[in-house]
Amino acid sequence: QVQLVESGGGLVQAGGSLRLSCAASGRTFRSYAMGWFRQAPGKEREFVAAVTTTGGTTDYADSVKGRFTISRDNAKNTVSLQMNSLKTEDTAVYYCAGRRGVYGGTYYDGSKYEYWGQGTQVTVSS
Fold this sequence. Notes:
Elements: E1 4-7, E2 10-13, E3 18-24, E4 32-39, E5 46-51, E6 58-60, E7 68-73, E8 78-83, E9 92-100, E10 115-116, E11 120-125
Parallel strand pairs: 2-11
Antiparallel strand pairs: 1-3, 3-8, 4-5, 4-9, 5-6, 7-8, 9-10, 9-11
């Protein structure tokens, strides 16, 4: 079992940057593909970014492509989300999630992820 704890959220002005981190417990972290999702008030949870077990492949939602970067460090059991050029519409609670093995074509599907963190709030002001 994997436990995930996010950090790094906060309040930032539009155009600014934040870096989210997710620390994972357990020795099997490298076996898990990892993703970031977000949920804004009154909206459904949506996919943000995902990375394969080795970090060799990443995928992004169109809304964040070119602005956000997901990365992982298997030696430190962490996955990060660097968020640049933030917009007010990026305001949401951000969740780290993990799933075993290769995610194939369903990296964007939150229902395929087995483990979730508690979330960290990101607020972007105008």
